[in-house]
Amino acid sequence: MARSRKSKNKVRWLFWPVFLAVCGALVYAVYCGRLVTQRMSELKWDLPSRVYYAPINLFVGGKIQPNVLERSWARLGYRHIPKSGALQDGEWRRGEGVWEVRTRRHRDETEEKSPTTYRLTMEGDRIEAIEKSSGNESESVVTATMELERMTEIFGEKRQVRTLVRLRDTPPLLREAVLLTEDERFYSHYGLSLRSIARALFRNLLSGRVAEGGSTITQQLMKNFFLTQERTLYRKIREVIMTLVVERLYSKDEIFEAYLNELYMGQRGATSVHGMGEAASLYFGKAARDLTLSECALLAGLIRSPGRYSPTEHPDAARGRRDVVLEKLRLAKAITDFEYQTAKNLPLVARSVTSESVAAQHFVEYVKSEISKIRSGVSFDRDGIDIFTTLDANLQERASRAVKEELSVLDRDRMKRAKSGPVSRLEAALVAIDPRTGALKAMVGGRDWSLSQYNHATQARRPIGSTVKPLLAALALETPAISPATLLDDRPTTFSSGGRDWSPRNYENRYMGKVTLRRAIELSLNVATVNLVARAGVERVAERLGDFGFGEVKPLPSLALGVLEATPLQLSEAFSVVFNQGDRAKPFAVVAAVDAKGERIVQQSMSATHAMEATTAFQVLHILRGVFERGTARQATLTLKGMDVAGKTGTTQDYRDSWFVGAHPSLLTVVWVGTDDNVTTGLSGASGALRIWSRFMRAAGDLLSDDRFREPSGIKWYEVDLEKGCLGGGGEKIREAFVEGTGPSSCD
Amino acid sequence: MSFLSLLSLASCIRPTQTPPASPESVAIEQLEPEVALNPKREASNRLVTEGRKELQSGKLERAAQRLSLAVEIDDSNPFAYFFLGLARLRGGRWGEGATFFSRAAAYFSDLPPWKAESLAYRGECLAQLGKKDEAIRAFDQALSADDSNTRAVSGRKKLE
């Protein structure tokens, strides 16, 4: 009796712990179920956003330097094939006057593009003809667009990169190879494979270490999704529970698809590469669906140890592992003996893995802020946005280099000049837009992103100095009585403004007495410009400056000396009026931003507002040509080899800011040089910013067309005396642009 | 019909024909056959054609993107500006529409009916902006380029 009571007590004591353990397991299973459901139903990984450069558009009659294409293809990982024969995706070759390239499958802002072969017939650097073929058909075309280059990816803290692939978009042989190497019985077990566990246990006991894991694909997925890599019993129990739950809730295909996207497949610099989609792109530069048998085998073999079998780091080991997988495929009769032998004999061709170096980090941040202004709540490091920008990869590269190289020269010169004490570090910014459309072609926000993330191109509002003078001249020229030949007073003068006297001075206290409007701008004369504004009406000029994008401007005579503040980007917009026939082109950087579901969340294109007559804008433009021919930028003329350029220097009080605005018909570039603590740099517009601009334009010359600025109708040319602005006279003569119906007076 | 066959067809069509009621419905090669002589214009027009297709399907911003590229290749292509104007007009961006139609009219100097059409559209944009006097001036300029332009006639009548 007593014994029976004792055993009953024992049972009672055992019941509660067991009951609680079962309840705990059930609660945990429910918890796991919810966790798994959430993750699997959304299939939500942190997808980095991708930022792309603008495409290279080729057209018959257009100009393209061979090195531009070669460099672009090299950055894309295309292979140079010297021999004749059919090109494979991502290959190119160059013959006598002929270029051939076969693009890979890629997408642009509108659609996915199939691989296409282009044959370019060249006459020097000019494209004479383009032949396009995809499949067996071939035709003559007038335009061709190359594959987009990726500028960078925007990661979260994990720095994972992944291209999602659907199971149906993966080659059957890739699926087969993965199953054979990782979990042969995946489609027949319930998540756990006792046979695999027993086999692993046996082998591990024999070798005395953990040589083989018995995990199924589902277990591996759960481990990667939710658990750590530690080898503890507790973690194993959690893994088993989660595996059983996910097998109960999801189909095998869904689990396999998630697995193929989650796999760790290697490193690109500090970034970890996940999934078969990204691995195909990383190692072979192609989409997963285009992988060959040999490539499928290599990727499947890589799963076990992406480091040890890396085709770029350890090609021999990678090849050995690939052959093991090929053998498995052959034994499983997934491939024939012939296919096996052919694939086995293929050399290992993998792209060299380079970490992307971004010379446009300020631009990337600018793009993010612009998109966020239009669409709030975007997580760039998680939402997988494809961002198609206007930035020109080649111009950007050359702009970055020009800023970096010229700043180091300027720094060295300043160090030499500085007699004692530390010298503030120079900063610089460069913005280049196409003045006809507003598309941003290059942007350098500072000398070094790692030192300062402040974007001087878009955030730093600084006084613009004499760069305002051409804009004032434009507004003055709207007045019928004023032309480029109008004579202005240029002698020391005291002006009254708001009850106070003010005496502007010229640079180095040099005065010309009487001077034409043209010469006042070419030589950047302060007093003459103040007189010009006074003649045009300070109130009207201040009000009209709003049409150049300056907002509200106080009607003070001192605005003639550039007290207005603007960022380089704003200044580029203002000057587009001059270089775009009187229309103000709004700068834009993003053509389209497309989310992971394919929805366009941002779209932009050229937009312009009419600011002044094309004839007036052209008169100013023609004056600014003279800045190079005779004015403050003449030092740059020699190096620009007959390019049609126009521009203006700018220097602010105490040489704090050095500016240059210069344009070619298809590229308007603004350069600023200064310091962050706003101290004197000792640099004028000509000795600082102009030097960067010149270096950039020399480097960019082969990328630009031979076009000249377009002359609008309504312009009449007269040959006038340079200094007096009248017809006849005994001095140097120049051709001056007048609006039809007006003209110069006679010197007599 | 292929691009090449359209080009050959174009050789027998006079470029000065009046713009159709729906301008984007006619192949551009029919409007300006001499483009074959100018490869830059031909390439630019190819993009104009793509832009017009987008315009027809109501994708205004995508149309504008293709047309922007057309301007980058040939910045004096009047058709690029004309259809940019149309994209902006249909998107209710009247100010930009007026700007682009104005540029188109400047470059349509050899095609008076198209110049007139551009100016008439410009008038419509200005009217939408409430700039009555400027709109009337644009309609008058349109009629002096082509006195049979119905858009200008009716636009002007509405403002009287």
Q: How is this fold's topology laid out?
A:
The complex is a heterodimer of chains A (748) and B (160).
Chain A: H1 2-42, E1 49-52, E2 57-59, H2 66-76, E3 79-80, E4 91-95, E5 98-102, E6 106-107, E7 112-113, E8 117-123, E9 126-134, E10 137-141, E11 143-145, E12 150-154, E13 160-162, H3 172-182, H4 194-207, H5 217-226, H6 233-249, H7 252-262, E14 264-268, E15 271-274, H8 275-284, H9 293-302, H10 315-331, H11 337-345, H12 361-374, E16 386-389, H13 393-417, E17 427-433, E18 440-444, E19 462-463, H14 469-477, E20 487-490, E21 495-497, E22 500-502, E23 513-516, H15 517-522, H16 526-536, H17 538-544, E24 565-566, H18 568-579, E25 583-585, E26 590-594, E27 600-603, E28 608-610, H19 614-629, E29 646-651, E30 658-664, E31 667-674, H20 689-700, E32 715-721, E33 733-739
Parallel strand pairs in A: 1-16, 3-4, 13-15
Antiparallel strand pairs in A: 1-12, 2-11, 4-5, 5-8, 6-7, 8-9, 9-10, 14-15, 16-26, 17-18, 17-31, 19-24, 20-23, 21-22, 25-28, 26-27, 29-30, 30-31, 32-33
Helix pairs in contact in A: 1-6, 3-9, 3-10, 5-6, 5-7, 9-10, 10-11, 13-20, 14-16, 14-19
Chain B: H1 3-10, H2 28-31, H3 39-56, H4 60-73, H5 78-90, H6 94-107, H7 112-128, H8 132-145, H9 150-159
Helix pairs in contact in B: 3-4, 3-5, 4-5, 5-6, 5-7, 6-7, 7-8, 7-9, 8-9
Explained architecture:
- Helices cover about 35% and strands about 20% of the residues of chain A.
- Chain A is built from 20 helices and 33 strands.
- In chain B, about 70% of the residues lie in helices and about 0% in strands.
- The interface between A and B is medium-sized, with 35 and 35 residues.
Describe this protein with a few key phrases.
heterodimer; A: 748 residues; alpha+beta; 6-stranded mixed β-sheet; 5-stranded mixed β-sheet; 33 strands; B: 160 residues; mainly alpha; 9 helices; disordered N terminus
